Amino acid sequence: MQLTDTHPDPAIGDDVVMLTVPADGGYLGVLRTATAGLAARLHFALDEIEDLRIAVDEACAMLLAIATRGAELDCRFAVTEDALTVEVTVTTVRGAKLPAESSFAWKVLTALTTSAAAEATGQRATIRLVTRRTGA
């Protein structure tokens, strides 16, 4: 696991893993597997791990729909004592918009994680998911 402090607000002592894959649905399995492995490291329950895998998959699908041709998905995993934060970022086509917070896709994300947020600035969009271990 790579410890880095290049992100603007990593907490001291967090483990941070950066993973970049082509913005293509064929590579989402890599991100789902990384998500499951890191959640298992935090001793998440099996259903929590599966929920997080589904949430990461849904977030990536949202971003793939607005990604530029040949883009890459940059995924940042931050592991703390009781939580896993996953941030996925992609370069977007001009004028791209993420689904509204009232959309079904966002309902899925908020139901499967502790919190979900999105930001689109310039030609980049980021979805951030935070999941805390229950009972932690």
Automatic annotation (TrEMBL):
Residues 55-130 form the Trypsin-co-occurring domain. It is an enzyme of class 2 (transferase). Keywords: Kinase, Transferase. The keyword tRNA-binding does not apply. One of its GO terms (molecular function) is protein serine/threonine kinase activity. It comes from the Bacteria. InterPro entries: HATPase_C_sf, Trypco2. Gene3D superfamilies: Histidine kinase-like ATPase, C-terminal domain. Its EC number is 2.7.11.1. Pfam families: Trypco2. This is Serine/threonine-protein kinase RsbW.
